[in-house]
Amino acid sequence: MKVLAVAAHPDDEVLGAGATLARHAREGHSVEIVICAQGLLSRERTADEVTQLLKLKDDAREAARRLGARPPTFLDFPDNAMDSVPLLDVVKRIEAAIAESRPEIVYTHHPGDLNVDHQVTARAVLTACRPLPGAGVRAIHAWETLSSTEWAPPSLTAPFLPNHFVDVESTLGSKLGALACYAGELRPFPHPRSPEAVRHLAGLRGATAGFAAAEAFVTLRSTWR
Ligand SMILES: [Zn+2]
Question: Ligand 1 center to residue 102 CA distance, Å?
């Protein structure tokens, strides 16, 4: 089986579905990752910023390796400004990635997130995965991204109401190991972007489904041919 994770920023793929991706890899599935935006806000590309961007890509490669995934594909859209890019441009790049990797399951952001890049990424994935005759994608699951999904007001966008739970007791350690690659993006607890908060959320999602630890998703579409 082949699975694809489409993240807006480097680290979202780990926060959202890291343990699930690690479980796919452990079960022998091919795991590919696409990262849409650069992950670093910038207007002028100083030498220092270029160095930071390169480091972030190295961090993402090492995180993918720790999950058992292939090295990520970077689309390099502008950070926190993906709404300034025509949606069709984003869709075409994701369509190309899907045509190349031919996944059966696609993981991506929740369309109701606070972060605009997350919203654009989710919308572009849904468009790229239109269920046309012969399409290979049979399920799209939206993950939750701590510090974006839970910060979105329910009255403004669709709330995150998970209906798909993956038992990740055996791979939560891999997720935390991959998250450690992004040390520069982490903050001390009780910031949601902390290893403790990630562990707490996995415990709560697990308890919801009868597991010791889980990652939770909203299934955006599921088909059985
Ligand atoms: Zn993000």
Answer: 24
Centre of ligand 1 to C-alpha 123, Å, is 14
25: CA distance to ligand 1 center in Å?
23
What's the CATH code, domain 2-222?
A: 3.40.50.10320
Neighbours of 96 (CB within 10 A): 14
Output the CA 121–ligand 1 centroid distance in Å. Answer: 10
Q: What is the per-residue pLDDT across 53-95, written as a single tens digit (0 to 9) for each?
A: 999 999 999 999 999 999 999 999 999 999 999 999 999 999 9
- Calculate how far, in angstroms, residue 8's C-alpha sits from the geometric centre of ligand 1: 5
Q: Could you tell me the pLDDT band of residue 42, with boundaries at 50, 70 and 90?
A: low
From the CA of 56, how far away is ligand 1's center (Å)?
13
Between CA 51 and CA 200 the distance in angstroms is: 34
State the Cα–Cα distance between residues 58 and 211, nearest whole angstrom: 33
User: Are the C-beta atoms of residues 36 and 10 closer than 8 Å to each other?
Assistant: no
Number of H helices, E strands in the chain: 6, 7
pLDDT tier at 225 (50, 70, 90 boundaries)? confident
Residue spans per domain, the chain: 2-222
Ligand 1 centroid, distance to 225 Cα (angstroms): 33
